[in-house]
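Researcher: Structure for this, please.
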Amino acid sequence: MVNGSKNRYAKTCRRALALGALVSVGGWGYAASSSGEVSPIASTGKPTAVPLVIQGGEGGQDTVAAREALQRWLTEHGCFVTVRVSDAAAVASATDFSGWRFEVTETAPANARLRAKTRDDLPLTVTWLVSAASNTGDLTSLEGERLALLNANSVLGWKVPLDLLRQANIKIDPARIYHTHAYEGAVALLLHHDVFATAIPRPLAQGWAHANDLAMVGESAPYWAGLSSGGGELQACVSAWQELQREGRNDARFGLFPSWLVGFEPLSSP
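Model: Predicted structure, token format:
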């Protein structure tokens, strides 16, 4: 292909970007990035998408609309992925993973690329919330009480808070645990006096406690959350992820993620 023809194809792709399109010319495909650069893609005219696996159970809502909103935004910014949601065990056990995955773990995985940015930049710990009027001084007061937690697949909404109780030698009665799909539902049960306590990540708990006359009791060690990749840096995706920032509580692009997450940042950020 002569330089003049290639330049014309590049201009065509830049115009297509404004329309959110991908172009195939003369059997070759070109994808335009948000910076106006173009790069050849598969001869079919379609980019090769990599899997994006999101660890479910952490408070996000797995809906078709949420998947489409995130996938569409990433595609428009040059990051081609296919989105699916899996439980923590499936995400952690994947050994041949070549795409992206969002996960919550005790420590950053070896292939971590970006870390989660939390609301108010607070540490990703878990604390139990109770009514301040209950005068609860420590976790022992929770024994035998009704509790609200997320589903059993959740790391921060199930595993961590129950570990806190076990470490305090508190007997856990499964029949006294109410299950919710989101932290907003869990704190609603507490505010309506349906339960005595609920476990909430600190980036949410601190603000909710202040606004609703609640008290925080006990706190876990901080956990790591973020994006890892088994397929190299995938620089177009790294740039897209860093540009993705939550815009309000109902930002559809974040529907699959927990509400304490507001964006992603480099691992070296302070």
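Researcher: Any notable elements?
Model: The chain has seven helices and 14 strands. The longest helix spans residues 3-18.
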